[in-house]
Protein 1
Amino acid sequence: MCYRVYISTDSDEDLSKRNSELVHFEKVTDANTGSCTYLLDLPNKWYVGSKTGCSCTFRHLAVGSDFEFGGPEDWCEEEQDNLDATKELYRTLDYLLSSGHKVDLVDQWYDTKPEAITTLDVSLDKVSESDFMMFENHKFRLKKD
């Protein structure tokens, strides 16, 4: 697998100060721009890596799934680090939104063309930390109600 997760925000905060063992924020510059970053709406763009360096060890729903948020299911075993990393990312997204900033997020499978990305409006007031996951080849315009 090779997922790439990017966020953009109007916050000038250095998100790399929030780096941990499970979540790693890397500022996107012209030199390291990913192929779908032009889909992001806001000026400060960040690549979001997980403990593997890529974005694979977050919770993702793959194309072909019913795209609905939900907690872990018994029939689909998820590693605790994936759950914890996704919760940690959620907390950063929630923090930015609660601080009055705008945020969007793109979850791209490595060879998906940007034109194939579907955009959804997602309210973190309606999606709990434990239910949050990214949807493969989707852009989330995040908000708080």
Protein 2
Amino acid sequence: MPRDPERLPDLPLLRSAALRLKHDLGKYIRLSAPARQEESTQELRQRLQDDLLRTRSGPSGPMSAPKVFDAWRAEEGEGFSAFPALASRLAAISMAIEEIRGLLPRMAGLSREDLIRLDKATLAVAEGCQALHRAAVEEKE
């Protein structure tokens, strides 16, 4: 079924929103990630704590990665569902954020395996933000 262009969200605004997510979440969720994963479990834990609990700073102080995503989604997340390619990429980011949200409160006691799982979720978010932005740029009006 063809899309009704009169009812579609403003694609340039969605592109701009995707770019902000790529920058505000995608870049900073792995800001201090090394090229190779840390051998020390404590160093891995510390890096994940730094990147995930203080992903961005807002007017009320540091914001965790899930809070950055939630704030972005509340302000700019509308309209992506009108474009299937964008909606699927946003859903993938959301799934990875939910995994992070579930593990983050137990960060201090996570096993190395769970820390690696958490690290993979941060990579999924970072790559997902890049893919969302790329798809938004490529989406035809």
Protein 3
Amino acid sequence: MRANDIAGSVVSAVLGRLIRRATGAMLALLFVFVALGFFTAAALFALQVNLGLLYAELIVGAVYTVLAGGIFVGLVATRGRSSMVPTGSGIGSSAARNAQIAMVIEALMLGYMLANKTGSRRDH
């Protein structure tokens, strides 16, 4: 096999798996929306029997508004924590990358030193 054939088969396998997973996720999301519609209809019917149509719709609307507000607050609260290294082109991003590279090099050096220490103990 040529390198192009191998690379092509690897890319198609990875892409195929990604497409299958995305299709499954979209199908699950579709079922969630259908179920949400049925649950909303059932809640409206149950509330309408006790409180009337206007109050039932106001309550269901208020519940959805509170849920959306909670999700929005959660997204705003966690927006700065998406990654440890900033993706911007500012001064901080190159310094953070350099610090991470330095930590990796330091960890490799420490591992090498520890490996040599354990090897010298076996010789004695």
